[in-house]
Structure formats: structure tokens, C-alpha cells
Structure to design on (128 residues):
């Protein structure tokens, strides 16, 4: 796939490396712990550990994956905040989907129907 993009440089960020650990309850979701590391693999204590929750919500259109960061300082704290984080991620996702739906609906132009919003193209008043 890299050959398809000959002018694109693909390089890992040597100062932004993380070790991944994954935990799951095999029912509701997965917690991913990203521990910052130095290039030699030792833990980088200068950067924060990142906790990421992952789950899916079943919708009529199929499974909707949710990924969300959790403000936590331990695995236990991340587990305790998982449910609320998932609810917030779902609410944010639904809001974004609604915004996209509105934007798509407002950009539909009906042949012979004038400009979107019912006005005359270029502004002005429509005279009967």
C-alpha cells in the first residue's frame, strides 16, 4: 500500500511511543491502556498513561463502534468510569450524526425548486 503513495513520508514518531495493554470483560467492552515508553522500551514517566474505552452499540443499521478516552489514573478508576464514558461517547456520536444529517439535508437541491432554503439563488426576494 505504501507504493501507492510514493510522495508520502511514513514515519513513526520516535518521541511519541506507547506500549499497549488490553483488558476486557468479554461482555461489555475493552479497556486499552497506553503506557508511554522511550525508544528503548522503558517507561517514560514524564508523560501520562492514556486509558481508552471501546465498545459497540447495536443499532438498526448494525454495530456502531465507540472509542473514548477516560480520565483515570489506574485500571480500577478507568473501569469505574467506563459506563459514563460510553454514554458520553454515544451522545457525542449521535449529536455529530444529527449535524451531518442536517448538513446533508440542507445541501439537497431539487430540480426546478430554486435554491436550498426556498430563496432565490444569489439572494433577493421572489416575486409572484
Amino acid at each position: 500500500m505504501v507504493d501507492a503513495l510514493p510522495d508520502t513520508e511514513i514515519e513513526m514518531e520516535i518521541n511519541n511511543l506507547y506500549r499497549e495493554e488490553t483488558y476486557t470483560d468479554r461482555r461489555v467492552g475493552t479497556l486499552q491502556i497506553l503506557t508511554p515508553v522511550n525508544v528503548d522500551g522503558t517507561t517514560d514517566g514524564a508523560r501520562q498513561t492514556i486509558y481508552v474505552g471501546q465498545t459497540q452499540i447495536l443499532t438498526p443499521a448494525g454495530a456502531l463502534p465507540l472509542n473514548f478516552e477516560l480520565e483515570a489514573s489506574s485500571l480500577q478508576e478507568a473501569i469505574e468510569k467506563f459506563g459514563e464514558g460510553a454514554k458520553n461517547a454515544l451522545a457525542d456520536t449521535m449529536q455529530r450524526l444529527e449535524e451531518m444529517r442536517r448538513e446533508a439535508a440542507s445541501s439537497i437541491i431539487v430540480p426546478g425548486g430554486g435554491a436550498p432554503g426556498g430563496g432565490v439563488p444569489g439572494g433577493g426576494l421572489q416575486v409572484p
User: Anything to note?
Assistant: The chain has a mean pLDDT of 86. The two ends are 58 Å apart (CA to CA). The chain has one helix and four strands.
